[in-house]
Design a protein that fits this description.
- The structure is a single chain.
- With 84 residues, the protein is of the alpha+beta class.
- It has one domain.
- It contains three helices and two strands.
- The two termini are 20 Å apart.
- The mean pLDDT is 77.
């Protein structure tokens, strides 16, 4: 969907690199960053957020290990970005 929207992005080159970036002992500065999107503007961000919401509705996503001793809170696009 990012490519379809013409959104600039960078992605880990191989599954091995993805595994290294999401490993429990990965350096915190890069940990979990296997994909980064660069929306052109707020409108493109809203469109992508809506498409992600629809694509992942009802899907339980596997999350990487937490690096901090905090209680996880499920992400919510509704709280993170107003769509109207």
């Amino acid at each position: 969907m990012l490519i379809a929207q013409g959104c600039a992005l960078k992605v880990a080159a191989t599954p091995r690199v993805t595994a290294e970036l999401t490993a429990t002992r990965a350096p915190r500065a890069q940990s979990g960053e296997f994909l980064t999107a660069y929306p052109a503007d707020d409108d493109q961000l809203r469109i992508i957020a809506q498409e992600l919401r629809e694509a992942t509705a009802g899907v339980l996503l596997a999350l990487p290990a937490l690096l901090a001793a905090t209680t996880p809170v499920p992400p919510s696009w509704d709280r993170a970005l107003p769509l109207s």
